[in-house]
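Example record

The entry below shows one chain as it appears in the dataset: sequence first, then structure tokens.
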Amino acid sequence: SLDKGIKVEFFGDEVDVIYEFDPLTGEKLRRLTRVSVYPNSHWVTPGDRIDHAIRSIEEELDERIAFFRREGKAFEAQRIEQRTRFDLEMLKEFGFCQGIENYSRHLSNRAPGEPPYTLIDYFPEEFLIVIDESHVMVPQIRGMYAGDRSRKQTLIDYGFRLPSALDNRPLRFDEFEERVNQVIYVSATPGGYELEKSEGRTVEQIIRPTGLIDPEMLIRPVSGQVEDLLEEIRKRVSRNERVLVTTLTKKMAEDLTAYYTDIGINTRYLHSGIDTLERVEIIRDLRLGKFDVLIGVNLLREGLDLPEVSLVAVLDADKEGFLRSERALIQTSGRAARNVNGQVILYADILTNSIKRAVEETGRRRHIQQEYNRRMGITPETVKSNIKDILSSIYEGDYWTVPTAEEPAEEYSIGSDMISELERQMREAAQGLEFEKAAALRDRIKRLRERVLEIG
């Protein structure tokens, strides 16, 4: 386990004794007769395959060096030779090297351009894939190949990687389609691809167990939208309900937050510039009633449980585009669907096609839900849910990377000596061709310098 260490003592070339010890105190806890040590990577390959891969990599390296020299790119030729020779030495000595996955084509003996092995290849012949939030996931699957190739092509062009690194890649979309068997696409707003693939076999889940109906969509003019919204906010605050407001820009979200705060409305704003964990805290505080209005860009669309929210306001709803598409409007309005008083206000001077379709679709669903409730004698009730950790349920179109466990927590004491030492490590990593490590150190130095400026 992570809280125990293993100490192996040798007598000459033989293992003499194995201990389990406490890494903090160094205290020996117990003596072991044997211990299993697992590899730190799944890229572990038998020796004979390593030997074959090394020969194949060397052949490709010779071709690449010759190519760069013909093009008059001596520096790139030197770089690719130095880096690859270092990796080959590591493979010969240890059967592993940093970035070994970039040689996966050679290690798995695949032909150039042949698709890589994925988890799907290990599924039985009859399997079912469920793609949740398919209107987001399908475009992501479709774009993975091109995004990966674009990044790696730059590394190849400048001599950081061999061309075979391109074959350590995600599946192309057509390759993904060939491998999947039965698929269920799950979405409140399915895209054209999902509807086409379904061939009319679309199952709608419109009725909610709570009897809640989709929130009514109201359309009001853009002129005076800020003051009109203020009155609506005051109505909700008087009922101890919450409000979500979505704007087109980050600056507008900040300015609107400042304006409402100045006139006594307890308001916060949310966008991708805010740290992920802080976002979780903001959403939790909204539900707890520590503030009443949350303003944001591309705000909280898919799958967030906010039963306290009774109003979603969309400012400048007639500005046609990604953030004001039919799907975006329906998804955003869904944040008010868990409250019996749920309502959506679209501020728009022009009825765009997206607004028309969103209003029509919402009206269709409301009619079905109301008719069902009437037949079954159901009285809608606001959802009651615990205010718990909601990290896993937050989605925004703007992505933010959370530091991994490998990155140290922020230091309490930051001095010039610490930054100098990190700079030395960064230069050392760069000289050793450990570019990923050097980049991570560079980013850490930047954060520390910003922290020093904040502390003063």
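Notes for this example: Residues 413-455 form one domain. The first strand starts at residue 5 and ends at 11.
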